[in-house]
Structure formats: structure tokens, C-alpha cells
User: Fold this.
Amino acid sequence: MTRVVLADDQEMIRVGLRVMLEAGGIDVVAEAADGRAAVSACREHRPDVVLMDIRMPVLDGIAATAEVAGADLPTRVLVLTTYDVDDLVYRALRAGADGFLLKSTPADRLVESVRLVAAGEALLSPSLTRRLIEQHVDRPAPGAADRALAALTARERDVLELVARGRSNADIATELYVSETTVKTHVNRLFAKLRLQNRVQAVVLAYECGLVVPGRSSP
Assistant:
């Protein structure tokens, strides 16, 4: 059974989320009313997913996301927000969130999304990721990509660019004429070199360093 921690400073929101998740067969193992308590709950219970509100006291959801994503935990972060294209959402994704959901998300979609993220998928379509990033990323300085990606091999750089363009591992394997296992190896190595937690962070980095240029990425 998928195990979840709920982190929101509004008790009514937590109650509503708990009801929807438990009705869908999700096990809510703990609740937290602030970011520091959320991190502590994740360390104690090691859930599959933490539903993390962005605006919370003591420690905000962005800082809490960074702590959870950077810890040695199996927990994936699903950010809860009121607005879909928002600078705070962008910052949360940059910090390591695996995706985000609107607080108005219907119950069936909420349960489906939690299970999807628990299974290791990023809850963002490539088009939505690009829309968020293109609205909030600063124009990189000339040569930024070369400096930021200096540790990568040419093939790892190619793989990162394709990840940033929304390609799956299978798509990348086809495009580069290699096996999917080889692609996974390249992805794991470039993530380790760049200290990335997930594909969403990879997309953000590719835009921020200028490897992918806003407005020029393919569908």
C-alpha cells in the first residue's frame, strides 16, 4: 500500500486530503502543520510520498522539499498549490519536487497522482514543465552551459538535452541508436555528476544553463 505524509498548515485541508486518499486505498501515516514537522515526519515514517504545501510556517514548503529531496529517503515530494504557473511552484521543482497538484484536484486524480509519483514518475507533462520554466528562468550568461556541464561527456550532455525536451528513456534510446539500459546508465551518471534528484531538476538545469533555449524546444 502506498504510504503518504500530509503537510499543510490548514487542518481542514489535511482532513479533506486524508478522507480522499484513504477512500482511494492510500495509507496516510502522518500529518504535519509546518515544514519542519513535515521533514521530521518523513524521516520517521519514510513514506513513499509527502504532499507538501508551499506556504507553511517555521519552514516553508520549498525549504522542506529541498531537505526531503536531499536526504537519504525513499520519499518523493508532490507539491500542493493554488496556482499552476507560479514562481513558488518553479522554486519547489528546482528544489527537488517530483511534481505538483492544485488543491482543487478531484479525488480520483489525487489518488492516481500520488500512486504515479510513488512509482517513480514525475507528475509534469513536458509542455507544462517548459511553460513554467520559460516564464521564470533568467536568460543564462554566454557560455553558461559549457561551465555548468563541464563534468559531462558529450553523450551524457546529449542525453540531458533530450531529457529536458521531454523524451522518455525509450525515446532517447531510439534517437541515439543505443539500448534503453545504456540510456539509464547515462541518466544515472549525469544525475550523480550534477547532483540532481529527478528528471524535473534536470529540465530546470538544462534551461537555466542555456542547454535548452526557451521558445526553441521541440514538442
Notes: The domain at 134-208 is CATH 1.10.10.10 (Arc Repressor Mutant, subunit A). Residues 18 and 134 are 34 Å apart (CA to CA).
